[in-house]
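## tool: complex_structure
## caller: assistant
## args:
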Amino acid sequence: MIRKQGCSLRKRICGFGLVLVGIIGLASWFGDACSDDTEMILATSTSTENSGLLAVLVPLFEDQSGYSVKVIAVGSGAAMKMGERGDADVLLVHSPAAETAFIEAGFGIERTPVMFNDFVIVGPPADPAAIKGAPNVTAALSKIHDARAAFISRGDESGTHKRELILWEDVRQDVDFTGDWYAETGQGMGATLTIAAATDAYTLTDRGTWLAVSDRNEQSINFEGGDELLNEYHVIVVAPERHNRLNVEAARSFRGFLIAPKTQEIISTFGREEYGQSMFTAYAE
Amino acid sequence: MDLIFDGLSEAWRLLVTGDSDVYGITFRTVVITGASTLIALAIGLPVGLGLALVRFPGQRGLVALANAGTGTPPVVAGLVVAILLWRSGPLGGLGLIYTPAAMVIAQALIATPIITAITAAAVMALPPTLHLQIRAMGANQRQYLWLITREARLPLLVAVMAGFGAVVSEVGASMMVGGNLSGETRVLTTAAVLEVSKGNFGTALALGFVLLAFIVVIAGLLTAVQQRARRQ
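## result:
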């Protein structure tokens, strides 16, 4: 066995701790001193990534601007949380009420509409709750609720989840979300659509992800239409006052890129060839 | 069943036609998991030796800690590293979040306790008389440690394999600190998760098969080294 020799172990551990703290401090200072201002973090909903739109737009922006973009697709709620902490430079989100609150709290600036599509209720083609032809979305959800037909929710504070909860509020105040008929996945739109298809359940989805992901043999759009289902995407520049590591110039440049006529045209035609219809409509149109 | 065959043929197609995306992702997986396993070995081996050989107060507690650490959930390791590396975190200025380096740090955090615990257990399992024999032969400190490590080489290879296995298969930490950025931090596991979320199960399965093939190759290499060491 090795015997202790020299200074005591406690002293050594203390010394080691001090060195570690020193290294972390130095690294932190060093990092700030040489921060990289060609890099930009975009936090966004899963729908923009699952639909494939960002895979087209982001490389274009990188080529034009010289910035390199890190796309973090986490859902609108989580994206805004990242913005609050200054962990993202720019947001592309679709959760209007939460966005307004975000702007009012001073976390974001220059909120600008980029594009829209619509939410649809998809489910088994056999339509067990008979929601096809319902006069409006409230009536359609009422039927699902009253029939106790299986419904899968995102349950992840995303834009789609928030909208779903608002729609349920119009149905009735005391929807029993604890029942067997209702389940939350806590996952992105693509995964949720897959689970809904596998369990013959209804779910609320944006049209873009539905077109890109779903297996249209096992699911169909059972309800669509109406102002309540409008799905708007906004770009928000994270407010630079609170955080010192933001790349606000890159964020502004990305905002400008998204609403430029050329980009808006790309957005409006995206997916038309592959799916026979556009996934998004640009605001410029 | 069809899906499994689809996945296999898709995997074959991706590999044979030299799909540059898949090669890039596989190469990145090799580099990141290799680096994190080596770092974990560089820390875990000496710490494991120390835990087994040096007597000090709190030794048992530390061994228990290392043993418990073998079960570190990747998502917890990822969260801890993310909180440090996020821009809002204490090391945010380094700009390491969403880079391969961040993934290496998080994965090393996962693998280090595993390598430490197995190393410590392997050295503790050596016959007590061995220490006396080595000392009696007049070995100095460095020779002593070298001989002990040599004696424990078979279980030490298991330690490396276990550490590597943990990081190559984890997805939670890589996703959280890497961000699954295409061409930068996308590795086989996170790519498979993405394809699943897009409903492309064939491609996801293909990536899974590539990952399995990679693990089999590494395990085969380590086993060959181990068996050669055994014959010596």
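## assistant note: Chain A has two domains: 39-117+232-282, 119-229. The mean pLDDT of chain A is 85. Handing back to user.
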